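Researcher: Re-running this chain for the archive, since the previous output was lost when a drive failed. Same request as before.
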Amino acid sequence: MTTYARPATSATLSLVPTAAAPGCVERYNTPVLLTRTTSHTITTALDRVSGHEVIIKQAHSAEPAAQLRLACEGAMLRFLARHELLAPRFVELFEHNGYAHLVMTRVQGRTLAALHSAGQISAAQIVQLLCRLCQSVLRLHQLGYVHHDIKPPNILVRPDFTPVLIDWGAAAALRGRATPGGIGTVGFASPDQVRGLVRPTNDLFALGMTLDALIVRPAPRLSAIIDRAIAQHEPRYHSAAELGRDLAQLCLIERVASCLSLAAV
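Model: Regenerated structure tokens:
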């Protein structure tokens, strides 16, 4: 069993083997399966040390590349915590039976995908939520990174309606190129991202596609915002501040319109 140290000042990771603390697996009480993806098994468990719920993300492959991806995601979570961005918090990273396990805190709430499927969130609320999310995305871009996998299942909505991005495994530095793990999700990844280009517009495209996926018949103003967010040529949004500002204006218009029994979203 091996754990990995993180770099002090960057989310870009160089693996440094360290002696593992004994009992890493035994620390977590009765993991319960949440989901399986093509690359990972994700469970929730109780951390006997902290007394809090955690998420455990286990790689399906024992190959070094799979371990590296989880190690980089763990380092990214440490980076986000250091800069006080909303995200799950890193707990530890360990190897057990040849497979890497990333442990992080569990953020309370439900995903935007689950809320939408259950009919528990309106179109206007979705716009408000993504408007708030633009603030976090802007801060992330200012720090030199993109999330690269924004989509309804990766947007967690806390009970106070605060959006939190989860699943940071595809995050990439703006100064670099996307890795195969940073290609993102078909339907939400921009053509630039699929070509390996790391740009803020990739996240803006994903935000636009999220709106498009969840709001079937958007009003003309919202439709124009979506079209501009997913555009590959000018005029298109170049920053989350621009997109957030237009969504905020739309939210204001929606409040006025609702008083007149109209719809702006």
